[in-house]
Amino acid sequence: MTLPNMLSRFARTIIAFIQPKHVMTNSSDRTRQGRSVSEMVRLVRAATATLKQSLGSWLSTLENKTQAIFNRYLDSGYDPGASDSHTRREEQGIALRNLSVCYGERCAFEGLSGEFQSASLTAVVGPNGAGKSSLLKALAGIVRPATGEVVCDARARHRLAYLPQLDELDRGFPITVAELVALGGWRNFGSVREPPPRVAESVFEALAAVGLVPIADRQIAELSAGQLQRALFARLLLQDADVILLDEPFASLDESTTEDLLHCLQRWHVEGRTVIAVLHDLDCVRRHFPSTLLLARSPIAWGETVSSLSADNLARAQKALIPAEHVRIGGVA
Amino acid sequence: MIGQFIGYLIGPFGTFGFMRIALVACFALALSNGPIGTLLLMRRESLQGNVLSHAVIPGAALGFLYAGYSLAALTFGGLLSGLGVVGLAALTARSRLQRQDSLLIAFYLVSLSFGVLVVAARGSQADLMHVLFGTVLAVDVKALVLIASISSVTLLIVAIFYRPLAVESFDPAFLRAVGGGGGAFRSMFIALVVLNLVASFQAFGTLLAIGPLLLPAAAARCWTNKVWPMIILATVIGMAAAVAGLLVSYYANLPSGPAIVMGAGGLYGMSLLVAGRMRLRAKTS
Predict the structure, then answer these.
(1) pLDDT-derived band of residue B137, with 50, 70 and 90 as boundaries?
(2) Angstrom distance (rounded) from CA A168 to CA A180
(3) Per residue in B45-74, pLDDT tens?
(4) Which of B47, B78, B42, B40 is nearest to B203 (CA)?
(5) What are the sequence ranges of the domains in chain A?
(6) Residues B233, B239, B240, CA angle at the centre, nearest 5°?
(7) Contact B279/A at CB under 8 A
(8) What confidence tens digit (pLDDT) does each residue in A17-30 have?
């Protein structure tokens, strides 16, 4: 029932109540007056009953609507019944169509088309300023493409995880390692609910997997770069995403940390997740990544790592940036 | 001796109604300024907070121009121009004309000048002082109800949406990825800041409104690096500064708004010295 409808019905009941009362007040008969009082009470009850009834239905639709708005805009990540990683759907590749990202007049990269296959492990390689980080940001939906589009089903389902370069995180924020990792389980509690007990268990498992259990209660401000990256990987473990984007995950990390985190990466690959990582170390790429995208403002090569990283392609990638660097000094990574 | 001292402390509040109302208004403000100031500090957006406090001026001034000291006009004017400047700043930031700092500084200066010109064109020197520095002792019951309502609504919203508000402040990309509604919470937070500045404006004026918001939070930041204790401590420090400032202004016959902000500043300085010596590694901003 709509609000105007309801109001008019209420008004009609009120009018029906007032008219007989008007007649009765003319009468001086006491018993009749007593009757009219009980009559009045009865009529008031009847009137408020309809009001209650109609208001009740109106209130419940209002409640449903508010709930829907809340779910849509403030808490769309709450999805406790979401399927686990092993029952994941097939469609989790990312298709790019003529994708470009520009900052003002300057384009980070242009005209990128192709597809990151479902369950692939791809390295994105290229000289500084080639647009690698911008590509990842576009995939994650953080920057808007200047042209073209990204088709990514996982992103719409909030099954995409993005790990920015380590220095983009505000490390001064007062949060402990365990709390940071627990945020990975967002789908279990969303914006407002209390985390269920099983989140604490999976936090412990994830911390154990990256070897951070002893320092679970430390503030993230006290961690070394390697420890912080381990914590963020633990959060990724909890996030259980179908698509994982990593921006220079091993930059400035010591060897043993890199080793451990590569282990996580391999695990995700085996589990059938789509993993895309921006990397600098070509030896590491050759050893661990089946496919590679070589990017230098425009795509140079995209395919199997061995053929993408041929000496010829690498030389072309270096050259591709030289003319532009002459025009403008200082690039956007 | 001690009894006499306590008499000095509570005497003014017992004797004068306006002192009591001012104290309650400051307490209500401290309650909501605690969480909002802490989150603002955590986001490293103190400068933006300052700009917002000045963005309230033109609207409040125009409200004053048309309706005099009308609570509704001042409040709605301030609210509208505050949110308007936020929108304008967001638009210009998206166009990437310039770095955001310079844009914010420009908004801050232009808003302040425009507001002063508007008030000066119609009102007196006293009106100008009222708009710029507020008159916490002139807060009446209507204004008190407004302040208390804003404070209650703020506390309620922060209590419900604490998690996404906090996560949005240090890792917005993550919040967006997990579907926490990143942009919505950013807007919600800024709206809360503007709302609290409008409430603060009644008592402290546009120039000082940011003081009771940020100084107690900055002082609390020295003592702890957990968010909840920080919020509670910021609230307590805000209340202590209010009591101290009101008493000083009463006995020394000084303006109360600046006295309260000075009190908060003094507590911040003490916290820096004492806690900073205790924990050299604590970051303060």
Answers:
(1) confident
(2) 15
(3) 767 777 777 788 888 888 877 776 677 777
(4) B78
(5) 3-74, 85-327
(6) 90
(7) no
(8) 666 554 544 545 55
Amino acid present at B110: V
Beta bridge partners of A161: A244
Distance CA A264, CA A235 (A): 12
Q: Encoding tokens for residue A304?
A: 């199997």
CB B193 within 8 A of CB B36: yes
ipTM of the assembly? 0.78
Contact A183 B167 (CB under 8 A): yes
Q: Hey, what CATH topology would domain A85-327 get?
A: Rossmann fold (3.40.50)
CB contact under 8 Å between A169 and B171, yes or no, is yes
Q: How is residue B128 written in tokens?
A: 């100008």
Q: Which residues pair with A99 in a beta bridge?
A: A112
Alpha-carbon span B42 to A197, nearest angstrom:
28
Q: What is the pLDDT of residues B215-236, one digit of tens each?
A: 999 999 888 878 888 999 999 9
Would an 8 Å CB–CB cutoff place B122 in contact with chain A?
Answer: no
Q: Which residue has the tokens 């070509």?
A: A282
Say if CB A92 and CB A240 are below 8 A apart: no
- Amino acid B40 reads L
Domain architecture of chain B: domains with CATH: 13-206 (1.10.3470.10)
Helix (H, G, I), strand (E, B) or coil at B178: coil
Q: Name the residue facing B173 among A164, A173, A175 (closest C-beta).
A: A164
In this complex, do B225 and A174 lie within 8 Å of one another by their Cβ atoms? yes
**A183 part of contact set with chain B, CB < 8 Å:** yes
